């Protein structure tokens, strides 16, 4: 479904991605692991068209999207939820979700999608009139993901959804991602919380200094001594 081939990204003199290759098949959750600065966010930004690669190619469902505009990429069903719970704090939960439908012309379809988000996240439904900024961190994260769902993703690009959340809340966010995937949406999940990500992922890649250094089924990565040592706290 998504194929990244030999991708290079430079920020001025910084060579952030160095010939990175990875893939996501239809129906998969793929975890992208790595330390701070490894190039995870840059990978998602390149896929969604927010940064321009200096080399390599990105293919989505067979089409070359390497230099396509971000809004065209989103319209193909590649929806990026950036790091940091960017909800509109003075808009209500419902208004935030409505914004997710900006590319959808059919208002009945937007209403149906919002209702599906409320079914998936009943506690958001109870807060539909509440301002986004008054929600807890975990609820804001769920709202950001819910808004992306209204856009109608075929592949969801999630950047660090567990960031700054308490362990129990991380578990609910991961459960939400697994539920979304069970509904047919593929997921590319960037996480520093490798344990949480590998619990729900089918496969994973480990990135270091802009290169993929390890890949494989999530179950194998969970047991791999290099992953255990570097990303699972050495236990
Ligand atoms: P984090 O978890 O901290 O976001 P990451 O794995 O997502 O880390 P990136 O944010 O993709 O890593 O950064 C990869 C490299 O590119 C780092 O060396 C970073 O300092 C550099 N970088 C990222 N964004 C920019 C930018 N806008 N300008 C210059 N350098 C950047």
From TrEMBL:
SUPFAM superfamilies in the cross-refs: P-loop containing nucleoside triphosphate hydrolases (SSF52540)
Any one GO MF annotation of this record: branched-chain amino acid transmembrane transporter activity
Highest taxon in the source lineage: Bacteria
Similarity annotation: Belongs to the ABC transporter superfamily.
Pfam families with a match to the protein in the record: ABC_tran
Domain ABC transporter: 2-234
Gene3D superfamilies on file: P-loop containing nucleotide triphosphate hydrolases
Keywords attached to this entry: Amino-acid transport, ATP-binding, Nucleotide-binding, Transport
GO biological process: L-amino acid transport
The name this protein goes by in its record: ABC transporter ATP-binding protein
């Amino acid at each position: 479904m998504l194929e990244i081939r030999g991708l290079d990204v430079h920020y001025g003199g910084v060579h952030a991605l160095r010939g990175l290759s990875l893939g996501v098949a239809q129906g998969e959750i793929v975890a992208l692991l790595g330390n701070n600065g490894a190039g995870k966010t840059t990978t998602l930004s390149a896929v969604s068209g927010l940064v321009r690669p200096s080399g390599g190619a990105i293919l989505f469902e067979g089409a070359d999207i390497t230099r396509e505009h971000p809004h065209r990429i989103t319209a193909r069903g590649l929806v990026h939820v950036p790091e940091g719970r960017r909800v509109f704090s003075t808009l209500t939960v419902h208004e935030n979700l409505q914004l997710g439908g900006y590319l959808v012309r059919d208002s009945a379809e937007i209403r149906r999608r919002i209702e599906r988000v409320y079914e998936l996240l009943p506690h958001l439904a109870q807060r539909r009139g509440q301002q986004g900024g008054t929600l807890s961190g975990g609820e804001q994260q769920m709202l950001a993901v819910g808004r992306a769902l209204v856009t109608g993703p075929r592949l969801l690009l999630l950047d660090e959804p567990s960031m700054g959340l308490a362990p129990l809340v991380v578990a609910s966010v991961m459960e939400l991602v697994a539920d979304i995937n069970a509904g047919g949406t593929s997921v590319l999940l960037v996480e520093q919380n490798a344990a949480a990500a590998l619990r729900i992922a089918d496969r994973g890649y480990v990135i270091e200094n802009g290169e993929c250094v390890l890949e494989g089924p999530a179950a194998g990565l969970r047991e791999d001594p290099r992953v255990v040592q570097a990303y699972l706290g050495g236990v």
